[in-house]
Amino acid sequence: MILELPKKNIEFGNMGYIKNGILYVLRINSFFDLMYEITYCIYGAERCWYCGQSCKRGKGEKEDMRPRITLDHMIPTIIGGPTIVNNLRPCCPKCNSKNKGDYTAEQFLELTKMENEKKKNETRIYKINAVNNAIEARKREMRKENEDKKRGKIPYLPKEYTEAKVNGQLNCLIHVDTKLGKQFERQKKFYKEYDRIKQPVIVSSNNYVLAGMNSIFIAKIYGVPEKLQMILLENVILVERGRS
Ligand SMILES: [Zn+2]
């Protein structure tokens, strides 16, 4: 798939840079930070993508009472949503908390629309119960659908995410500071419970694993390589550097 990038060339310090529509990643362990920065570059860091609430980035001025911006996964991580620009949007804390929960962006927008319609009709009491029931019924349907995605019963990633196939062998750079500990244990537990590998593997166009090492370990331990979901970022290159 093609990673969403700003049109202009930008440098991100020692993390990487964008040149002529290609993202060059300089440090594999800042890949997620790069994804956050690029999302803010494209979608701004001052407004919630869902409700339009004005936000601030970082601590800001003392008198600036606006809530701090967060990033939301449009497809929640629990159902396999990857941490890449295409799946991230700036979001106010309110939308990113209980409100959105584990709903997808699409579902959340649909529910918000229903709630807004309800508010418009709030004076017509006789209708409210019916509307509430309709909203609750829709929520149940959505939760069921998400549960099936969580268990891998229905596809949980959009087709365009996994269309491009990795060709050849994967290159893995494991850093001495890579912690297999808690994250790995959590993913293992998830696999046992849902019979699905939680996170897709994200691969650069030169076949480097950018994220999802834990998933690879789980596939190996349980002997289920067919259960790995691969996302090949066709416009991202990991710049190899000699170890010093
Ligand atoms: Zn919001």
Largest sheet: 4 strands, mixed
The first-to-last residue Cα distance is: 33 Å
Q: How many helices does DSSP assign?
A: 7
| Average pLDDT | 91
SSE arrangement, N to C: EEEHEEHHHHHEEHEE
Which strand order do you get reading across the main beta sheet? 1-2-3-9
Tell me the β content.
Answer: 5-15%
CA-atom Rg in angstroms: 20 Å
Residues in helices, as a percent range: 25-40%
**Count of individual beta strands:** 9
Question: Uncertain runs with pLDDT below 50, 5 residues or more?
Answer: none
Shape: globular
Q: Which cofactor or ligand species appear?
A: zinc ion
Structural class: alpha/beta
How would you portray this structure in words?
With 244 residues, the chain is α/β, with parallel strands linked by helices. Helices cover 36% and strands 14% of the residues. The chain has helices spanning 31-43, 93-99, 105-120, 125-150, 159-162, 181-194, 213-221, and strands spanning 10-12, 16-19, 22-25, 70-73, 88-91, 201-204, 209-211, 230-233, 236-238. The strands form 3 sheets. The chain has a 4-stranded mixed sheet with strand order 1-2-3-9, with helices on one face. The protein has a 3-stranded mixed sheet with strand order 7-6-8. It has a two-stranded antiparallel ribbon with strand order 4-5. A hairpin with a 3-residue loop joins strand 1 and strand 2. The structure holds zinc ion (ZN). Zinc ion binds next to helix 2. Zinc ion binds at residues 48, 50-51, 53, 91-92, 94-95.
